[in-house]
Every structure is written in structure tokens, then in C-alpha cells.
Amino acid sequence: MRPPMTRIFIVSPALRSTNNGNWQTAHRWSTFLHADYRVSLGAEWSPADRPQELPACLIALHARRSAPSIARFADACPGRPLVVVLTGTDLYRDIRSDETARHSLDLASHLVVLQEEGLAELTAAHRAKCRVIYQSAPARTSDVSQTRRRRTFDVVLVGHMRAEKDPCTPMRSLDHLPDDSRVRLIHIGRALDDEYRHAAQALQARVWRTVQRYVWFDGLPHGDTLRRIANAQALIVSSAMEGGANVIIEAVNAGVPVLASHIPGNIGMLGRDYDGYFPLGDDEALARLLDRASRDRAFLTALQQQCARRAPLFAPALEEAQVIRLVTEALAQRSPVS
Fold first, then answer.
1. Considering the domain boundaries, does residue 215 fall inside one?
2. CATH code for the domain in which residue 26 is found
3. Residue 34: count of CB within 10 angstroms of its CB
4. Which of 188, 204, 243, 321 fits as disulfide partner to 87, beta carbons 3.0 to 4.6 Å?
């Protein structure tokens, strides 16, 4: 009879209903580990849930929001591997100012950042137990027939509207485009407060001389979002902070160039010499970049080529191998008394 499988628990503060990056990461990692381990996934972990079935390893996404689960596991399972994945606001905000987030880093046996620039945010002691694991997405192709028929230059912005994503910069940039511009912004994401909802509704109701420049989808299923990305001419990532945006990977692996705010999380994904950056919050600079991309085919092709050179980092087989290696090595290093 086959021996019982080793238990792994993945804590994600966001679950399927949120359809955000943390959930996508947690779900993908659970799939990678499913063949060799008994994997459970939840928004939090407590030893009281199944006291006779303590996991051999805990993987927690987000140092601050998963801090209670991290502390409980460290207390209940001393010596067992505890992996903390720094996913965005924890890496670029919380560990600077929040004691519980910093304590999560101290308790972790292993740390993970999702792009190479993330290592620079850590102390030497924390960097010593950290590794980079890039996320992945399957390669996709566009519907060429739809692309050829289109008279607009469609650019997609994906993400629920909140301050960290800075959705207003792309929205404001539309007013700086020339009257004859073909640019149309396809905005996919729920408004998380009324201010964003009213701004999106007002912008969508406006009438421009040539094309309808703004179309807002108040949330779409992930599959529909992927199709919209693959059929776009470009993707905008305007965020003020990112741990390693899944949407960049989805665009790159679909052959779609990215226009990104010049922040460490995006630089770590696209490279320091990438030509598609604009200064954070600068709507006029973004408008110039959009106009150039929509009119200058050579420039757009150059961005595609630069993205294509980064694509091997985002291969599903590579991410799967690195996640499995992480857990295998972590379990091998656990304390013999655990």
C-alpha cells in the first residue's frame, strides 16, 4: 500500500472569488505540488482545524496579511519549513513599517520573491534565505482575423481599481491623445470604491470625435480576460507597487508588448533596459508612449522583441520545477525533531 502523502498547506489571503494575483499564484502552486503531496489551500491556517493532521510545510503568501497563520504555524510546528512568499504590498510597503510583516520574515525558514529586483528590498539576513521564482502562464495566440478587422489600437488595463494599481493615470492619459488617435483603452477590473466607479462610468459615457476611447468591464472571468489580453495590441501596467505582476506574464506569453510604470516590481519583470516604461503617475508621458506605439510599427515590434527575450523566465515548466525544488529542499532541511 502506498504510504500517506506529505501534507502541504498554502495560505492565500485571497481565494478564488477575488480572481486576483495572489489567488492565481496559490492555485497554480497547489497544482504543481498536487502529484507528490497532499495539498490544502485556505485563507488562513490554524492547528485547531485538524490537530491530528499538521502539515509538514506551510507556504504563506503575503507577509502581513498571512501573519497570524505564519505565527500560529511557527508556534505549533517548530522546526518545520515555513515558506513566506512576498507578493507585492508586503515587499514594497509593509516590511518597511509593519512589525507583524517583519516578524513573518524572521519566522520564515525560506523566503520567495517573484522577480529579481525584489531581493534589493531585503536585509542581508533575509536575503540569505530568499530565492527568486518567476511566475508563469501558458503561451497564447491572438485571433488574427479579429485583429485585422479592428480599426482601433486596443490597449488593455487589467486589475481591480485601487490606489496601488493607479488606474487613474491611464484614464487621464486619454485626454492627452491627438484627436485622430486610434487608441482605445479596454479596462478590466472591479471598482473597489465609489470614487473609481464614478470615474470609470463618467469616462465610458464620454463621446470622442473618432473612436470610443474607453470601455470598462466591471470584472471578467479569468479566461475572458486572457482572451482580451491576447487580442490586444498592448497592455498597460500603471501600478505604484507590484511584487511581480501576473498580467505582465500573461501578456508576454501571448506576444503582447507591455507599457509599464517605472517601478522596481515592473523592472524586475521586464529588465532594466526595457524601452516601454513611463514615469509613475505621468499621464502625459503615457499618452506619448501610447501614441508612438499606435503609429510606429517598428517601435511596437521592438517592444515585442524585448518582451520575447524575457519570456523564457515565465515558462510554466520552469516555475513548476522551481516550486517543487523549493518544497523538496525545505522538507529535507527540516529539524529532525519536527
1. yes
2. 3.40.50.2000
3. 12
4. 243
